[in-house]
Amino acid sequence: MNKDYSELIQHLDRKFSNIDGEFSIVKESLMNLRERLVNLEENKADKSDINDLMTAIDSYAKRADTYFQEMVMLSHKVDRHEKWFQLIAKKLDLKLEY
What we know:
2 helices, 98 residues, 89% helix
């Protein structure tokens, strides 16, 4: 009878060892998942990051718009001066070469 219990104990011991191994694997997986979630939390953008980015984009867009408006005005000014030079050359009977 004592022998029957020892076989049962060995069988249960093997089963519990397997279960302990599986729990260890699950525990490791959960710890890795927790680390990944912490890293993800640290690296994600929040509202203030998005607002800072939007502010920077708006600032750049305003400067670009101002620059393009100045270029259009400068282009018109150059065209106007070129027209004046043509008129002056015509009055003085000069031929302008490009």
